[in-house]
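Lines hold sequence, tokenised fold; shown next:
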Amino acid sequence: MSDYLLQRLAPVVANERLNEKYCRVTVSCGPIASRSRPGQFVTVRVAAGGPTLLRRPFSIHRVVADGLQLLVKLVGPATEELAKIRPGRMLDVLGPLGDGVFAVAPERPRVLLVAGGVGVAPLLFLADKMQGGRHWPPTLIFGGATALDLPTREQFAELGVPVRAATMDGSLGRRGPVTDELTAALDERDPRQCQALACGPTPMLRAVAEICAARGVPCRVSLESLMACGVGSCRGCVVPVRQDPTGHGIPYTRVCHEGPVCAAEDLAWEQME
């Protein structure tokens, strides 16, 4: 567990509804924001009067002057509450969490960011950090069911990041899964120069890992998982890995602690649902 883990009551600075499925919440919590790295997350609970007992995990979407931003997909009571929260209300924020973060391999200059829906959240923070470096700009390959599932793509474009979209209904970009667009992008490049950094649902990440492995492209993935404690104690978010990380005969790793970002080749994808 990071030595920099903090818990703060953080006021909401802004709450922007992006579309009927997503909102973006900005909270003022400078001490947590200043310690955060791309790929890490926080757990959040409405400080008073919230509908749920357990905290909810959210990737750190962006570090801004007022603190940090969270990209929220509306999927249940907790996220519906966040979508309605007004500036001035307090959130109980714990973080930054996760020792597994995004790292760019220095010898691979062509960086592909692969996102599925709300999986785009940590990749904007990563793009911010990459600005001006030798790997700039990366390319965002962004997929979802419809155009509504591709929020914040405008912010990538404003940074100068090319965005290649794919939607299952064809409402934006290529019709089909995001992995089709990833395959097309790799076909246009020398795979020896490429690396992929991805976040999204597990089936998508497995497909991304297989495509990259077939071409010899290093791939790191940020896993999505249900969590209870978020700090590595309950072990409710473990995923199977190919090598025992503890030496105690337990071939699993905790998404909240050793993750959420892992090398794709370390994961036992065939054992995941």
The first helix runs from residue 30 to 35.
